[in-house]
Design brief:
This protein is mainly α. 88% of the residues lie in helices and 0% in strands.
Length: 78
């Protein structure tokens, strides 16, 4: 169930980032979860994961928007 929830959360990331790194990100998450020995450790892994997603998802979407906007403005200048 944890892997399924994590895969759903990964869908929050932009497609180009998921396409390039989803397997590595998921493998790192599974390794961290496996290394967590207690319920508290697993909770800490989830807390860190959610915190990372809360920081990374908006930043990555902003980067995609900025890149697309720059491309659109370059096309409009022609």
């Amino acid at each position: 169930m944890a892997d399924r929830l994590f895969r759903v959360l990964l869908r929050l990331l932009p497609e180009d980032l998921r396409a390039g790194y989803a397997r590595e990100i998921a493998a790192a998450f599974r390794a961290e979860r496996r290394d967590a020995r207690s319920g508290l450790g697993i909770a800490a892994v989830w807390a860190a994961t959610l915190w990372d997603l809360a920081r990374v998802v908006p930043a990555e979407h902003w980067e995609v928007f900025r890149r697309d906007a720059r491309y659109a403005f370059r096309l409009m200048r022609r």
